[in-house]
Specification:
Layout (H helix, E strand, L loop, with lengths): L2 E5 L5 H10 L3 E6 L5 H6 L3 E4 L17 E4 L10 H16 L6 E7 L8 E3 L9 H12 L4 E7 L1 E3 L6 H4 L12 E3 H14 L4 E5 L7 H8 L15 E3 L2 H6 L16
Helix pairs in contact: 1-6, 3-4
Length: about 260
């Protein structure tokens, strides 16, 4: 049985773990919350109570898999970026010492691109962004593994509905959205785990980019107040590279048709 360890069994990591388990993978999944252990067991996953620290090595038994998925987002509002990078550095050292690991999938974010107008492709990242530095650490330290960087657009679907943000935040109606439905995100990540065998950096976003005004009017059924504090249209995430290699169709290519609870 093929084996994968998912570091971070949260809103994205847990459904990815369940999907891979249903594809007959042995799935180890970590959490920092002891109350999630029973839930993981109920899905026939192998649970681990783990915290990535700034020093020391990660549990060697957890890392005893062919594929590692790093799926815990940084908390830059409460965490010093340098502390986060130390965690990534020590995580890379832990992974590099395990010969069994052949592939590492790092879930990054399209926030690595500056919030300026225009199309953003993979080479356009801000080299000073902490997430880009984290990507670089993993790529440079993990010389014996394939490293796949998945830059995730705004995750939506189910209980994550953009309408609740439009009611409390000011926004620019003309600016495009860069969203991806969680079902597409998990399908693409699972495909990368199962089938893709090269190091690569990819943008993961729905191919359609409606405006926030369209989201507010069509998805939320009414036009929200629009203060128009900015005149720029903002960035649009380019997914040409993903669509060149990913053989499946998006389940939800258009954020105007995302399904929510």
């Amino acid at each position: 049985m093929r084996s994968v360890s998912i570091l971070g069994g949260g809103w994205l990591g847990l459904p990815l773990a369940i999907l891979l388990r249903n594809k007959n993978w042995k799935v180890k999944v970590s959490t920092t919350s002891i109350h999630k252990i029973e839930d993981f067991n109920s899905f026939n996953l192998v649970p681990y109570l783990l915290t990535v620290e700034k020093e020391g090595y990660l549990d060697s038994d957890f890392l005893d898999s062919e594929v590692i998925v790093i799926c815990f987002p940084p908390k830059f509002k409460s965490e010093n970026p340098e502390d986060y990078l130390l965690k990534i550095r020590h995580l890379a050292l832990s992974i590099s010492g395990v010969d069994k690991i052949k592939k590492v999938v790092f879930v990054s974010s399209t926030s690595v691109y500056e919030d300026s107008d225009g199309m953003k492709s993979e080479p356009d990242a801000d080299v000073n962004h902490p997430l880009f530095k984290a990507e670089k650490i993993l790529s440079e330290k993990l010389t014996h593994q394939k490293v796949i960087v998945a830059r995730m657009a705004g995750l939506m679907g189910y209980d994550r509905n953009p309408c609740k943000y439009f009611g409390i935040r000011e926004f620019v109606a003309e600016s495009a959205v860069n969203y991806i439905h969680r079902d597409d995100a998990t399908e693409i990540l699972a495909w990368l785990v199962e089938h893709f065998e090269e190091s690569i950096t990819l943008n993961l976003s729905a191919p359609n980019h409606p405006t926030r005004g369209q989201i507010a009017e069509i998805v939320c059924k009414k036009q929200q107040p629009n203060p128009k504090l900015k005149t720029k249209k903002g960035k649009i995430i380019n997914t040409d590279l993903l669509q060149q290699i990913y053989p499946k169709k998006f389940l939800f290519p258009d954020p105007l048709k995302f399904k929510y609870l």
